[in-house]
Design goal:
Oligomer: single chain
Mean pLDDT: 91
Number of helices: 11
Helix content: 40-55%
Length: about 260
């Protein structure tokens, strides 16, 4: 081996050794995890995720939107690791497409539907309400009734009253339940239908009536993994743990998962 070749060999060997030392000396980075979650979860899930990151070191990004929009993004290959929907139908849909890990699915949370108002109201009896008279020429804010869970539940409850035909032209349908909440909070519409947890999250709205749970399909938030990395599985476990349960309950959710 000539002198130049020897020199090149040792330079390469030293460079490789330096790289190895650097890798060994560098802290191991925790995996990142991306969550797609129903818009109604934002306040509570932000707190849960903060605790998860502090405990595990896994950086977590959460994208909030209507469950229908998120499910379609996942179907098209969006890089999500966990999906938390506001109803079972969209998780069923993704299972049918083979887009999620069905064996990881859990029913995580429950919620309640409420009628909210921009101005304070005396408590109303939902089953005695004439919604068209109550709205009085205004609009009723709702999430999209054909695709977004809160809107689907809300339409079912109004149909149970036998009043959907009168209310349909007055419904201000928006992309997700937080957008419906915002319409009422800003006074753009006098009334709206949202989850009880949404009403608790914004002091600018008032609960005018609680909608009976038997007037619409049961409200359930299933969670399911899309990938099976360590961070994903750790997060799925954390969502069912005592710390997460305490936060979800504080924000008005009922915890279904044990």
């Amino acid at each position: 081996m000539t002198g130049n070749k020897i020199t090149s060999f040792f330079r390469g060997w030293l460079a490789g050794l330096a790289a190895l030392v650097f890798l060994l000396a560098s802290p191991v980075r925790a995996d990142d995890v991306t969550v797609f979650a129903a818009a109604s979860l934002k306040n509570a899930l932000d707190k849960v995720v903060a605790g998860f990151e502090a405990e595990t070191g896994h950086k977590t990004t959460v994208s909030y939107a209507g469950s229908s929009a998120l499910a379609r993004q996942i179907e098209l290959g969006a890089p999500a690791d966990v999906f938390v929907s506001a109803n079972s139908d969209w998780v069923d849909y993704l299972e049918g497409k083979g887009a999620v890990r069905a064996e990881t699915r859990i029913n995580l949370l429950g919620n309640q539907l409420v009628l909210i108002s921009h101005t304070p109201q005396a408590a109303l009896d939902w089953e005695a309400i004439d919604l068209a008279t109550l709205v009085d020429g205004g609009r009723l804010a709702m999430a999209m009734v054909q695709s977004v869970p809160a809107g689907i539940y809300g339409k079912a409850a109004i149909e149970n009253l036998g009043q959907w035909d009168e209310i349909a032209p007055l419904a201000a349908q928006v992309d997700n339940v937080r957008a419906a909440l915002a319409l009422v909070a800003l006074g753009e519409t006098p009334f709206g239908i949202v989850y009880a947890t949404d009403a608790l999250a914004d002091p600018r709205v008032h609960i005018a009536a609680r909608i009976p749970g038997d007037s619409h399909p049961a409200i359930q938030y299933p969670a399911v993994a899309i990938t099976t990395g360590d961070a994903t599985i750790t997060l799925m476990t954390y969502l069912q743990g005592a710390q997460a349960k305490s936060i979800f309950e504080k924000y008005g959710f009922s915890v279904l998962a044990e």
